[in-house]
Amino acid sequence: MGGEHNAQRILASWLIGGLVIGVSLLGLHFAWPQYKKRKKKRPIRVYMDGCFDMMHYGHCNALRQARALGDQLVVGVVSDAEITANKGPPVTPLNERMIMVSAIKWVDEVIPDAPYAITKDFMKKLFDEYNIDYIIHGDDPCVLPDGTDAYALAKKVGRYKQIKRTEGVSSTNIVGRMLLCVRERSTGDSRNHSSLQRQFSHGHSHKSEDGGSGSGTWISHFLPTSRRIVQFSNGKGPGPDARIIYIDGAFDLFHAGHVEVLRLARGLGDFLLVGIHTDQTISANRGGHRPIMNLHERSLSVLACQYADEVIIGAPWEVSRDMGNQNPYAIPISLGIFKLLESPLDITTSTIIRRIVSNHDAYQKRNERKCESERRYYEDKTYVSGD
Known about the structure:
Layout: H1 2-40, E1 45-50, H2 57-68, E2 72-78, H3 80-86, H4 94-102, E3 109-114, H5 120-128, E4 134-138, H6 152-156, E5 160-163, H7 171-187, H8 190-202, E6 207-209, E7 217-219, H9 226-232, E8 244-249, H10 256-266, E9 271-277, H11 279-286, H12 295-303, E10 310-315, H13 330-334, H14 349-358, H15 360-380
Helix pairs in contact: 7-8, 7-15
């Protein structure tokens, strides 16, 4: 009797176990198509366009926010002709702007010669050829010369998303800073040079500096937060056996020449550490009218570049064990760890400033128009979620 009872118990266990396995397999059979469908679901692709003239950390932050709204970010860089027709001549030509945008760590793909306005044909191309799900723009209005909204069509079809504009900086503002420097330098007043440098480095929140020039430049007080620095940072240190490369500089008005030098430097090792000189160091070595961008603005621009792994905010002028050397690189030279890199592009910060100076009147008129629209933005802005 005991043997029969045990056999029945074993048989019952097998039957129950088989039933459970069968139900599980049946469930897996019906769930598998949905699982495969989830696995095959394509990434969300978002599109953002812009001029990206004299690219700065505000542009970079816009691209960062846009990328956070999808899995892949496609960026359209507006052509020189379109910028000239809608805003006036760009300071940096398309090839330089392409280098800048392509180097940003949040950008996956770049479209050159993008139109200034989202036309019906171009929007169809974005949706059909580039598989774009949403078109992104900041909360500042983008108005065409005829007064219409450049993104009206995208909004109409429900494929538009908005991000928060990074306040305190714009290409117009930066051009205005240079125009002020040109004006002050022409007077030969070194006291005003120092005053301007302090305003750029420690500015006054949304203060309009006119001074009789009519430029109406808005000088903003940029106060970086630890959160913003973390957002821009890679968040990773070098590996235990990494070959670490160090390069330093002002990186003022971060441009395509800077990008190319960082690219070459990164190619020499596994981890690129970039030293950013202080405002005071640059003023002492380059003149009282420099830098145009303050230390924290310059640091964020470098951090946004995919070739920079980490930055030292306020690096010393001399790479040495003490501060008594005439040559700032004397120690690394003596240790045999120094290499001089030449940028493949003949562009410097002075090049950018000369472009503004050589076309002073045109840029001043453009800035007067743009500063007025920026003033209206700050007066009329409403809350937009984002950072």
